[in-house]
Automatic annotation (TrEMBL):
Protein name: Disulfide oxidoreductase
Organism: Staphylococcus simiae CCM 7213 = CCUG 51256
Matches recorded under InterPro entries: DUF1462, Thioredoxin-like_sf, YuzD-like_sp
Origin: domain of life: Bacteria
Length: 105
């Protein structure tokens, strides 16, 4: 079974450019059953990183994504899979499935 590491970078406050979008935590909870149902052959490992609170013991890779969010190059929630950028801001199912279909499964 192929392992896929899914990281959601987010915050308690909804992104200013994402008005009426779900919160980062909502996205984190929403993608878990969605991906499991769509890709039962994959083993997903999920991590949620609060960009304002979880700032200790992060890898350089995680820190770089947080810095890019802080510099407004990227928006949260931001999703990576196996350390590769997948989507940020207003997350849609198609972004996740396209990445998995092209890179993993």
């Amino acid at each position: 079974m192929t392992n896929v590491s899914v990281v959601v970078y987010g915050a308690d406050i909804i992104c200013a450019s994402c008005v009426n979008a779900p919160t980062s935590k909502d996205i984190f909870e929403w993608i878990q059953p969605l991906l499991k149902r769509k890709y039962p052959q994959l083993n997903f490992n999920y991590t949620y990183i609060d960009i304002n609170r979880d700032t200790e013991n992060l890898t350089d890779h995680d820190q770089q994504f947080i810095e890019r969010i802080e510099q407004e190059e990227l928006f949260y929630p931001l999703i990576t899979m196996n350390d590769e950028y997948v989507a940020d801001g207003y997350i849609q199912t198609k972004q996740l499935t396209r990445f998995l279909d092209n890179h993993i499964s």
